[in-house]
TrEMBL record:
Keywords: Membrane, Transmembrane, Transmembrane helix. The keyword ATP-binding does not apply. It holds the Pfam family DUF2567. It comes from the Bacteria. InterPro entries: DUF2567. This is DUF2567 domain-containing protein. The chain crosses the membrane at residues 37-58, 90-111, 118-142, 167-187.
């Protein structure tokens, strides 16, 4: 009798896609945390530095609101359509931080050996921190740029510094990172996001 014959060597009739051997045949790549912590801190620190150019650019690009001096005590009167610049200031800042977030998402994705949730979260937090610092610095620099050094004359038109009146605009930067990184991860389609170069 052949060694391969007999019921012990027959293929199982119930073996299917949900059988135990199939479930444990392939190992899913684990999330790397320890090795990615130092690069994540580097990403976070580098992104916080971007708050300075972002704040300076916004303080120069955001439009000021023009008002007219209507009384000798310096009372200001609104000019037609000028109050819309308060929204323009928010929109300019939001578009700048959204663009920054998209660029950061793509650049962080190109760090192939560090792809994963740890560096992704560092990028999201880094852009959020850079946006918050840029908001504070930008408003301060705008106030300095449009500072009124002498008392304006009655009837004169002056420019008020741009301002940011809502903290919700800080969500646009992290949103940009999330959209860019998520689209690239979906397009990649690999379990390890292509971390292995082989």
């Amino acid at each position: 009798m052949s060694e391969t014959s007999g019921p012990a060597h027959r293929p199982s009739a119930v073996a299917g896609p949900w059988s135990v051997p199939v479930l444990f045949r392939e190992r899913r790549p684990r999330v790397v945390v320890k090795a990615d912590l130092l690069p994540a801190v580097s990403v976070l620190g580098t992104l916080s530095v971007l708050s300075f150019p972002l704040a300076f650019a916004w303080s120069r690009l955001a439009p000021p609101e023009r008002v007219r001096i209507v009384a000798a005590d310096g009372t200001q009167g609104a000019l037609e359509l000028e109050s819309w610049h308060r929204f323009d200031d928010l929109a300019v800042f939001g578009l700048m931080t959204l663009g920054l977030g998209i660029v950061v998402g793509v650049v962080v994705w190109l760090l192939r050996e560090r792809r994963g949730p740890v560096v992704f979260l560092a990028a999201v937090l880094g852009v959020a921190l850079a946006s918050a610092l840029a908001m504070l610095l930008g408003v301060g620099w705008a106030n300095s740029h449009y500072a009124i050094t002498s008392a304006p004359a009655l009837g004169s038109v002056i420019e008020l510094a741009p301002r940011l009146e809502s903290w919700w605009v800080l969500l646009t930067g992290p949103l940009g990172v999330s959209i860019a990184y998520s689209l690239l991860a979906t397009w990649n389609g690999r379990d390890d996001l292509g971390r292995r170069l082989g």
